[in-house]
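Entry for the shared binder. Reason: the reviewer on the internal report wants the predicted structure included alongside the sequence.
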Amino acid sequence: MKKNNLMRFWALLSLGFAYGIIYLLPYMKSVFYDQMTAATGFSNEQLGLMLSVYAIVCTASYLPGGWIADKFKPRTLLTVCLAANGLLCFLFMFLRTSFFASLIIWMLAGLTGAFAFWPAMLKGVRLLGTRNEQGRIYGIFEALNGGASLIGSLLMVWVSTWFADMIAGFNGAVISMGVLCLLAAAGVWFTFNENITYNEDALEEKDKINWRAFGKTLIMPQVWIPAALLFCGITMYGTMSYLSPYLTDKFLITAVAVSWMSSVREYGCRLGGIGGGFFADKVFKSSAKWQVAAQILTAGLVFSFIFIPTTSPLLAIVIMFVFALAVYANRVTAYSLLSELKVPARVGGTALALVTLIGYIPDMFMHTMFGSWMDASIGADGLVSSEAFNRIFIYAGIVGIIGVLLALVAVFMRARMKKKEALQLKDIAAKA
């Protein structure tokens, strides 16, 4: 049994490492924003468009990818996707100055990172735990992939510092990312043993897509509220990546220093998710009530970036990390609202899919929109003006205010449900 547990740990570690590494390519502007613009020659809008196209491909590929994941073993699919993503990294290094080629690479990255990879990854993690261990298994997996993302990102930044030239350093970072993907592919192939499974119900028929259930779920208000709140949370998350050029252009902090901080912001601050779950469960005793507080906190913090003077870079850095922690603490509890708002378990999978599809819509347009605002305000010194960043923060802040109102609606809905449940229990007691 101890041997099996050790094998299971190594398999889970390889899956966490794989998940944490494969998304470094499409989201690399979050850490290497200035280096990426210098190495590619692309405008801010073009960088945003690449991520928008990536998000669209991901969304369109989820359903057919689920079908593929049911037809092939997770180990094979994960290995192929990781190896292909590694090759895309090397291809991007050679073709980085061609916007058309880069756009195609980002589209292909949407297939290697979503399509069959995402459902195969979830299936693989699920197979590693019994029915009673699912929460623990996914918790460990989340911690492992967060750690892998942080280590991988910091390693890339470290490699980039080996070179005196920014563009050469960027190429070095891309090469190291490709090597990490290939190592992740090898890790999954050699540690994930599909002959040793712990969850025999992982592929039950009831978990497959049910179009009738999808139609019913589509009109449930208790599904749309969490979906809209996730939309607000993803807007805040996407806004974080623009804090990198905000620090370099407004406060004149070096690109390398910002890359180090951005790695911690994007991946190290995922620990905020643990805090969000704690506040929702232990302090507020409700995900809906915590969402009200979290939406107020993130909206207030994103507005505060507008008023930080250029003479206070340390203040901007501190608020950035607090904002990142708050964003992760906010985002993780959107899904738990489904249970709190009494979404039936029989449509739970469909509800999660719908919330994800709607919640990640901002990635399809927001980055292109923000990039166009930045391009329109570049001054003679080549720096983006404060007005463009203020416009980004105002947009995100308004979305945050809408999030507060939506969270209040969720609190009202939950209170009404509890009142209805109390009346039903009272009627049952009276009849008895």
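Summary line for the report: The first helix runs from residue 2 to 22.
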